[in-house]
Amino acid sequence: MTTRDAADVSPQLELARKLNLLLDVVVAEGNTPYTFRQIEAGLKARGLTLSRARWAYMITGDGPLVTDPALLTGIAEFFRIPAEYMLGSDSDLPERVDAQLAFVKSLRVARVVSFAARMLGDVSPETLRSITDLLQDTTPDPESSPAT
Predict the structure, then answer these.
(1) Does residue 106 register a pLDDT over 50?
(2) d(CA 101, CA 80)
(3) Which positions ≥6 away from 49 have C-beta within 8 Å?
(4) If you ran DSSP here, which 8-state letter would residue 61 be given?
(5) pLDDT of 91
(6) What are the distances in angstroms from CA 43 to CA 22, 65, 92, 110, 139?
């Protein structure tokens, strides 16, 4: 989903989509998922506080919209991305960052598909296509439980 497609999505769900994409890319780059405690500590080092409850509704898209520029900038700094991505500026930067993050994730998925094909050996093309489709589904599920 691009920033323009997000017009039909609530601001809370759009923020959740961005946060979940950031969390997914960390894993896609071969790192272990960030825990809430790591994110909390990273923000605390920047003089910011984040409660577990607030983080939970930020990544699920439930609850009030978080618009605190300092917090959103701190999250962007923690993930080493431009703050404009989290702040939703009118420039095309958020869309470009979104596309770059999605591209990094798709590269990692391609590696996983290739690895799975080698490990599974003699598998029907239909099964391999099903596995590929499953791995390439990058739509975050707001009902899924977040990483904490």
Answers:
(1) yes
(2) 12
(3) 40, 43
(4) -
(5) 55
(6) 15, 19, 26, 32, 27
